[in-house]
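Good day; I would like, with your permission, to put a structural problem before you. A protein sequence and the structure tokens that stand for its backbone fold form the material at issue. Thank you for your consideration; the sequence and its tokens are set out here:
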Amino acid sequence: MDINFTRLITNGEFGFLKIGQNKSEIENQNLVPECWLNNESKESSRIWRYGNFELHFDDKTHLTGIFNDYVDELDGGESLNVMDNWILKKGIHPTLDEVTNELTSKKLNFSKDTDSLGLITIKLNNGVYMIFENLNEGREISQGDYGMTVIGKK
């Protein structure tokens, strides 16, 4: 399955996957998981993996989210082919400033929240979210010190 991150950001599209799909619908599209949680079967696991991308399931059946916490080393394994990285580059965590500037230039509405641990989450109306953390701990920080560590969709 081809993945286009610009489409993910702009309209929430992650290939043919849709939140709420069940496992058999996904497998019928020839997207068989490469691995799943230890001590679980493919059928009972709440997480299916494709390289370092994860599909999360609610009651072990319906897709509730897409998750990747290796944004600087995207790997779709045997099944996912990243065709367009958007601003994600190998070995680099995009900064909060870079991402907000890119979202603004694409005229995309987003909200920004900071949790009690200091993690900053950007949420788009299409269900896509990004999490940023301070990558330069130990000194006064600015938005440019926060790097994206997670990208996902709920």
In short: Helices lie at 5-11, 23-28, 96-105. Strands lie at 2-4, 35-36, 47-50, 53-57, 63-68, 81-84, 110-114, 120-124, 128-134, 146-153.
